[in-house]
Design a protein that fits this description.
It is a single chain. The chain has one domain: Single-stranded right-handed beta-helix, Pectin lyase-like (Pectate Lyase C-like, 3 Solenoid), CATH 2.160.20.10. It is 12% helix and 33% strand. It has an eleven-stranded parallel β-sheet. An eight-stranded parallel β-sheet has the order 5-8-11-14-17-20-23-26, with no helix packed on it. A hairpin with a 5-residue loop joins strand 27 and strand 28. The chain starts with a helix and ends with a helix. By secondary structure, it is mainly beta.
């Protein structure tokens, strides 16, 4: 057999094996990095036309599986169930998007999506890394708000669900309105990300560090309260919850001064074992942040009575805040010392 024909035949064998999920050839991206799967519109030899297909092609086990996704709008509802998967895009132009909300009916007739089920991308495995992506839920929150019959407007972009742990998210944009990022459980680190939303848009019980991220409050027309940044549902036995270090709390045009709370503690389902922990450490904040900082959140107690979980009962703290939204210590704006701040950061490590 001629040398050229042999090379052509080998390429086709590799592509066929990848297509049926036996293994994927290691490929190089534009900058020479090596990946196990490439996702593009054309697919290419041994490549994939959807991210869902590239995820499904990962061999069983927990060996690293690296996926490179080309620029473009990828409208898929995705779940990562395999450990040690890396999904890397080409920057903000690589957009993973879906438009489900909690109140929408599932296409299989099994009822509404619910908050967790609404996510555009769900992580259910340890060791997952996401880099250089825009992860968006484009449900029409403002339109639903205008509709008197609209409800179930929670629309998650990224969910770290049961099974997620040691999740790394770097240089990503995570976009929604209500409940944008559901850091439900496990440990996670977000570095250099931009997270945008309105109501409780960073929420959940994870031990998560947000390191030098932009936290952007979105404008909701005619709303007196524009939103709440964080809604931690941290278990009381867990010493660390949502930790924001060196971040910038910014706002879209039109968001008024003193119209956004730093957050409120979420006692999900009335679970008395959840007290909510969040820390704002060495962050800059614009004037949209209310001077009181944190506020209460309602829940139904074991006796069926409606109650409030207050900032004083929860673990909501600050240190080193600066900018127009910074304020002096007070009953709902508690400050911690340097040693406590360092321990909170260390508690998110993995």
């Amino acid at each position: 057999m001629r040398r050229g024909a042999a090379a052509w035949d080998r390429r086709n064998v590799l592509a066929g094996a990848a297509a049926i999920g036996l293994f994927a050839p290691v490929r190089s991206g534009a900058a020479g990095e090596r990946y196990d799967a490439l996702v593009s519109r054309s697919g290419g030899a041994g490549g994939f036309r959807t991210l869902a297909a590239a995820l499904a092609a990962a061999p069983a086990g927990d060996a690293p599986w690296r996926i490179r996704v080309a620029r473009g709008i990828w409208r898929e509802k995705l779940v990562i169930r395999r450990p040690n998967v890396t999904v890397e895009g080409e920057g903000p132009g690589t957009v993973l998007v879906f438009g489900a909300s909690a109140g929408m009916q599932r296409p299989d007739g099994a009822g509404p999506w619910g908050t967790g089920g609404s996510a555009s991308l769900t992580v259910e495995a340890p060791g997952v890394s996401l880099r250089g992506l825009t992860i968006r839920n484009d449900f029409d929150f403002l339109g639903a708000r205008r509709d008197p019959a609209g409800n179930g407007a929670q629309a998650v972009a990224l969910s770290l669900a049961a099974g997620a742990d040691r999740t790394s998210v770097a240089d990503c944009a995570i976009e929604g309105y209500q409940d944008t990022l559901y850091a439900r459980e496990g440990r996670a680190r977000f570095r250099g990300c931009t997270i945008s939303g309105g109501t409780d848009f960073v929420f959940g019980g994870a031990a998560a560090l947000f390191d030098r991220c932009r936290i952007v409050s979105r404008h909701v027309p005619d709303a007196e309260v524009q939103g709440f940044v964080a809604a931690p549902s941290t278990p009381a036995v867990q010493p660390v919850g949502l930790v924001f270090r060196g971040c910038r709390l910014e706002r879209e045009a039109g968001v008024p001064d003193a119209s956004v709370w730093l957050g409120r503690p979420w006692r999900a389902g009335g679970n008395m074992a959840l007290t909510g922990a969040a820390a704002i450490l060495d962050c800059w904040m614009d004037g949209h942040v209310r001077p009181e900082g944190w506020t209460w959140m309602g829940y139904r107690g074991p006796d069926g009575e409606q109650r409030r979980l207050t900032p004083q009962e929860a673990r909501l703290v600050e240190r080193g805040s600066r900018g127009p939204g910074a304020a002096a210590a007070g009953p709902t704006r508690r400050m911690v010392d340097a040693r406590t701040a360092a321990a909170l950061i260390a508690g998110t490590d993995f």
